[in-house]
Amino acid sequence: MGEYKRNPNAECLICSTRIYRRPIELQKSQGRAFCSQVCYGLASRKEKPCVICGKKILASAHKKTCSRACANTHRAGIRYKLGSPHDKVKDQRMLKLRLLKQRGENCERCRYNKHEILHVHHRDRNRNNNELSNLELICPNCHYEEHYLEKSWLRNGGLRRMVRH
After folding, report:
1. Residues spanned by the domain of 50
2. What percentage of the chain carries pLDDT values higher than 90?
3. Both 54 and 94 in a single domain?
4. DSSP-assigned letter for residue 153
5. In whole angstroms, what is the distance from residue 67 CA to residue 73 CA?
6. Single pTM value for the model
């Protein structure tokens, strides 16, 4: 018995190979037919041009250039670290070093002498007001007392009320 073959009724859009597809499938795909998964994959690629040389690259890779050489050419002339954002950490360190040099290496309230752990405290509690008259170097215990002890539930007899009951 001979091999049954259908007459080709379509052409692959990529490699132009003559193939047979059911008429309803051709109608659903609006005449788009492919001979294999490889050809379908090639047709589905979304490509865009390299910004330097124009060579096609995959759009899904979110790249602007096709190679390292084009990337280097694209980056030429860019100046880094100009107009960098304000670095809060460096500013706080500089403030602390300046205060340590001016006022000594002790807590200004209790005279605790470990300067490595001293905090910079803003007297008016405005972190943007960094005038030296508004700043003081205090240890973590004094800093905690300053900010949190006034709101403590243990003040005003809270602990005594709990013990009595």
Report:
1. 45-76
2. 49
3. no
4. T
5. 10
6. 0.43
